[in-house]
Specification:
Layout lengths: L6 E5 L2 E5 L1 H14 L2 H5 L7 H18 L9 H12 L5 H16 L2 H11 L18
Antiparallel strand pairs: 1-2
Helix pairs in contact: 1-3, 3-4, 3-5
């Protein structure tokens, strides 16, 4: 059983599926270029070259794992293409969103998100802070 789930990365309208048992390998490659903390702080401190390399690495790995044609000849070629698209005013927002969303999907396993949500959600039947007071029974 994998800590991760199957996922799909998309780029230029093409989906690149990635099996759960391959996700961790991609996480390691992505974090060489863009650790999770840098990705989480992307808006405040954009690292466009790192983002481009990380997303390109993930896409190329996913294409190879799925036996699909890669989106470029090399990771470096794809990273440069993504980087240039970031600065193309008509595509900037969608390329950045696609890259950040895809990388978050890789770096943050679904089970980790669910565990965090479970700790934030009240237990079934309400909780002590819900504002409901129970009558004294005595």
């Amino acid at each position: 059983m994998s800590f991760f789930k199957d996922l799909v990365l998309s780029y230029k309208g093409i989906d690149y599926p990635l099996a759960a048992n391959k996700v961790f390998q991609v996480v390691a490659a992505v974090e060489e270029h863009m650790p999770l903390m840098h990705l989480a702080n992307y808006q405040a401190h954009p690292r466009n070259a790192n983002l481009s390399m990380a997303f390109a690495s993930a896409l190329m790995f996913a294409a190879k794992a799925a036996k699909l044609n890669p989106p470029a000849e090399t990771v470096d070629d794809l990273a440069q293409e993504i980087y240039s698209e970031i600065f193309n005013s008509s595509a900037e927002a969608s390329v950045i969103l696609q890259a950040v969303d895809g990388l978050f999907g890789l770096l943050v396993p679904p089970q980790a998100i669910q565990n965090k949500l479970n700790t934030l959600s009240p237990a079934p039947g309400g909780d002590a802070d819900s504002g409901e007071k129970k009558a004294d029974q005595g």
